[in-house]
Amino acid sequence: MIANTQSVVAPAIAFASADGTTLQITNIVPGNVSQIGIEEYNGILGQFAKRFIQFCRDRKLGVHCVQTSDALTLTSAIPGEKTRGFFNRYLALHPTSYHPLDIERLDVFICASYRYCRKTINVDRLRRYLIEVLKWKEDDANWCCNRIKTGMDILKVNKKFSA
Q: For residue 80, with 0-12 CB atoms within 10 Å meaning exposed, 13-18 middle and 19 or more buried, which class applies?
């Protein structure tokens, strides 16, 4: 965790590692205010990344830093064009009606994502996209993203399954 005590916001940046070699920023928590907006959050993240990259270059550490786009688009959440097409079919009708055909379209997207998408679906970014861009209710976005996550987990187990 890194904290900037000189800032008015006094943000603390939290990191996590899934593989022991790669660090991922998991959250930015304001210390002196109750909350920060998306633009300020992204500004803090951008400033940190810029300084961190320079720090690593100056010391010739050989650290590779990747910064994802702050643009909240469906492409940034679902990287594969083919799988995005399946998700757009789900979105095209009445996805929040929970009609069995709508749920089936979402399940087809999940299967297509598992089969065709080389990169991982960013479910958190997708949730934000549904809420902030498409103006879904939080409960609907949570239901959709939880189903995607659960479906992907089940398909992963199914691939390894042998009786």
A: middle
Residue 37 CB coordination number (10 Å): 8
Assessment of whether the complete model's pTM goes beyond 0.70 = no
Cα–Cα nearest to 88, from 63, 113, 56, 118 = 113
The per-residue pLDDT for range 70-96, each reduced to its tens digit, is 677 888 889 888 999 999 999 999 899
| Token pair for 11 | 């943000």
Q: Helix H segments across 59-135?
A: 74-77, 81-92, 100-116, 123-128
What is the 8-class DSSP label of residue 131?
I
Crossing angle, helix 100-116 and helix 81-92, to 10 degrees? Answer: 180
Would you state the pLDDT for residue 85? 93
